[in-house]
Amino acid sequence: MGRNNRSIFTYDTLVHAASGAAGSVVAMAAFYPLDTVRSRLQLEEGRQSKNTLAIIRELIAKEGSCTLYRGIVPVLQSLCASNFIYFYTFHGLKELRSKRNQTASSDLLIASIAGVINVLTTTPLWVVNTRLKMKGVGVSSERNNNEYTTLCDGLVHIWKYEGLRQLWAGTIPSLMLVANPAIQFMTYESIKRRVVASLGGAQPPAWVFFIIGAIAKTVATSITYPLQLVQTKLRHGDKCSNLPPDAGTLQILVYILKKQGMKGLYKGMEAKLLQTVLTAALMFLAYEKIARFVFRILLHKPHLR
């Protein structure tokens, strides 16, 4: 379909989606051990908050280097599906709008809609891979041990033994966390537009995309981290003592605040910031390079719009 038809189903949108998915997989694979550290800090209440490098050394010494990559395959599968849906929806909705009307507020709205669609369709994938990543490390409940090893098996197992509702555990904080990628994409697109404008419409060098991506993710993660902490606990099925099994987002936030103080709400944030900022920066860099390459080779376009 031609660009003038203003359809969400365009070749351009497909290229953006595939590039975003590929870029996210490359970035996560590169920095996956940092995500492992983040998960362990968020879920293991007894683990002390040390610097990221110290925890990596501790995990390797006690459990072997393989523990840093536990669950990487389902995470990459989930991330690929999640980012394909997000990038496709985001850029598809942008196609429907006039280029003249692309502002920070419109980017925020479009990114929020894309985030809601992404959460509702991919939450079951993240529930399973959170369980797989933490299997056999002490915080996993008995029902999670050795019953499934793949994403597909996990989806079927949880549906069969815990109910369909459990596959969408953590959906409420996830919907609240739509603000994270929305803020990230709004910040990224806004800075990118200004940089391109300052260069007279020319595309900036690759390292600029890395810096812009890092800034955007730092802003988003710093604002929304406590909700990410609760989201991880709910997805894992982590039960807090003195709380009912069906405790919600607000109850868990208050519980952590009372038991550990403000510091508890930001436990693991150093590892999370390091992982997400580097991953997002590399993801945006890879995305821009892949998309530009495809447009140039296949469509003979000199640059992205």
Describe this structure as you would to a colleague.
With about 300 residues, this protein is mainly α. The chain is built from twelve helices and no strands. It has helices spanning about 10-45, 50-65, 70-95, 105-135, 150-160, 165, 170-175, 180-200, 205-235, 250-260, 260-265, 270-300. The protein is globular and about 60 Å long.
What's the count of strands?
0
Structural class: mainly alpha
Q: End-to-end span in angstroms? A: 17 Å
Helix content: over 70%
Order of helices and strands: HHHHHHHHHHHH
Query: Which stretches of 5+ consecutive residues score pLDDT under 50?
Result: 301-305
| Radius of gyration over all CA atoms, rounded | 20 Å
Biggest sheet character: none
Overall average pLDDT:
82
Tell me the overall shape.
globular
Strand fraction equals: under 5%
Count helical runs.
12
Question: Gist?
Answer:
This protein has 305 residues and is mostly helical. It contains 12 helices and no strands.
